[in-house]
């Protein structure tokens, strides 16, 4: 096609974008996922499939790409599927058989369980998309392709919102950026976009991988919190889908020891997050056993065989020398309960039976001599931590599958539920104090820091909540569901999401400071060793990353 014909296509497409894709708050209400209004939006997808537009876009993409014949083309579902189809068909007209594929937003949980759809060749990769703003969705694609030992050399988009200097990640990975248009091509916006974007600092990428460990045979179809890591000064411990409890050396990720459970319940093996106390590692498994292993050697200290399944994560009362865990059974009217074991001998000190399963993890308050736990029926139970005497029962919630937390200063027990609420109940009486409605069920365990509650939600948000009023102080929107529990390190909140990102947020303001991208979902909280300043990041695929900060914040 001649240069003049291409310029005509580009001019007509630019005019269509300016007239129909750029939308301001004066034209219609624009809301983010938190319900807050914002000023503008560029709806490229809305005009992309108009008659003739996809052909025009494909023509302009192909005119740029045809100079480099040896490459393959990819992109992120769903918008890239249309773009890929258009460019591949345009290349075909010139006799070029262009290989293409697309990257799923998250790994498919059934069928082939793939992250990538299509057949990858060894050719360099060009990724295409409608727009390039923060660049995070592209980063995830690059990381997914790195895991397949493939190289991305260029990113091509319809509109680039920022100049190339903004994208540290692409520069570091020698990835070129090309766009049909920039914001300078749209003077009709009056500079509104550029002014707003100029206030947003460039995302930082301060972490690098020291090592990565991957346990064999992950269960990709099981998308829920699994066994979170815990660490001492030398090692990090976590359980895997294949029934192995791993102890890894923090220095290099090598295996210090492993303990293999022999069976489980169907495909479930170890979901219980281990607890460490006085050189002993405690965890449950779906073989029905509750284990106490020597943390240094992995040798058995003691095992309790009472349950049919143990999905609950234990907690330790150090002052009482007791460890608490939820147990589950396959019996009518005896499906669950909570047990207290002597940490040294494994002797069962007390036991309380309930009618439904107890997958929830107990929480302990030394101040109140109290342990609390939730159940599948929605009931929450409080016990005398030493004797097991039932103190109160709260029965106004849905399934409680995550953990609970004590707000000692305000005398509250707080937890999320599958009735789409966060419950605040009086720790002394068990009476309802207040609740906060969420848009989806809650699986994350809340944490308390400096008079605030922090929690991840399945409605894709990370919340900071005033525990007195139950009002939201700030809300951060991720790109996928949040099963993981937040962690506070030096005033920064770290929380993973199913979008495969570990977010670093200012705990007081909710402003994003940095992120780290992996390929698989992050469904558990991180572990952190302050003595060596290392973060241990788990994924639901039984991977564990050891991250080191490259430069001081």
Defining key terms:
7 helices; mainly beta; 6-stranded mixed β-sheet; 14% helix; 553 residues
Number of continuous helical runs: 7
How large is the share of residues in beta strands? 35-45%
Note the main sheet. Answer: 6 strands, mixed
Number of strands: 40
If you average the pLDDT, what whole number results? 91
Would you write up a description of this structure?
- The chain is mostly beta strands.
- Helix content is 14%, strand content 38%.
- It contains seven helices and 40 strands.
- Strands 5-4-3-6-7-8 form a six-stranded mixed β-sheet, sandwiched between helices.
- α1 crosses α3 (53-65) and α3 packs across α4 (79-93).
- It is elongated, with a radius of gyration of 26 Å.
- It starts with a helix and ends with a strand.
- The model has no long low-confidence stretch (mean pLDDT 91).
